[in-house]
Specification:
single chain; mainly beta
Length: about 200
């Protein structure tokens, strides 16, 4: 009998030294979507149009007057650097070749042969519903799940937390046009958002 009591005490005592189970932590509340004008993000992007496929890591610092974007291989080697400021948009490739255009859309068309809505993308990424958006569906927290704007369907597949102002971390864009070769699919997985303090 004494042996059983001792074993029971040891078991109960052993349980008391285990660390408490931590509750799942939610990130700090985010500001309202329309107030986010500057951000940085790190993640991965994949673009598919017809026979063309592009995939890379992406690091993007966005501000109203300037964008800096680094595209990298899965091992972190630089593929390209994109900069937009008051003098236009410039792309520097790994072999140091440079391509310039008046704006981001012109640069994407010239460099990749793909018409991407890069000027509108910062608002779309933070799920700030643009004027003129149609067929908007929302999730239970009131956040956009899907919308259509300017010929694009935007699907917000996952958010960083359950909070109402959480930022999306998995987004798909699809340009819906008649010709299959003109359709564009973009998938962006955001691993980390950084907002100014």
């Amino acid at each position: 009998m004494r042996f059983h009591t001792m074993v029971l005490c040891l078991l109960l005592g052993g349980c008391s030294i285990l660390p408490p189970v931590a509750e799942e932590q939610q990130p700090a509340p985010r500001p309202t979507r329309d107030s986010i004008v500057t951000f940085a993000l790190d993640g991965r992007i994949a673009i598919h149009q017809g026979e063309r496929n592009y995939a890379s890591g992406i690091s993007w610092q966005h501000a109203p007057a300037r964008d800096e974007m680094q595209l990298t291989t899965p091992l972190g080697q630089g593929i390209a650097e994109l900069v937009r400021d008051g003098s236009g948009a410039r792309l520097t490739l790994a072999d140091r070749r440079k391509i310039s255009a008046a704006d981001l859309e012109g640069l994407a068309e010239q460099a990749f042969g793909i018409n991407l809505p890069l000027s509108a993308l910062p608002r779309w990424l933070v799920a700030d519903i643009p004027a003129g958006a149609q067929q908007i569906t929302r999730d239970a927290a009131g956040r956009p799940q899907q919308l259509r704007v300017d010929g694009w369907r935007i699907d917000y597949l996952h958010y960083e937390s359950t909070q109402a102002n959480a930022l999306p971390n998995l987004i798909e864009l699809h340009r819906e046009v008649a010709g299959a070769s003109e359709q564009i699919d973009v998938r962006l997985k955001i691993d980390e958002w950084t907002l100014p303090e």
